[in-house]
Task: structure prediction
Amino acid sequence: MSADNFYIIRKHPLGGYAAVIGFASDTDENDEQIMPEAEITDKKFEKWQDAWNYALGQYAEYGYDIHPECFESKSILRRIKYMLGKL
Result:
């Protein structure tokens, strides 16, 4: 395992959340960091807090984070779309 690993909490494709491992050295052709996505095979948690607690139990040289998608609210997005439609 590389020593530049980190864990990030992402939305699981089947609902809920996943603690996903990433590596700071994973970059694309533009040298931009590749952000890992949750896959169906990742362990699924109902609450992001449970995924976070699981991640904290894993070794991560570069730490832990929560992706902003975990805090997106459908109701907020609906309100924004509604307001944009009114402009």
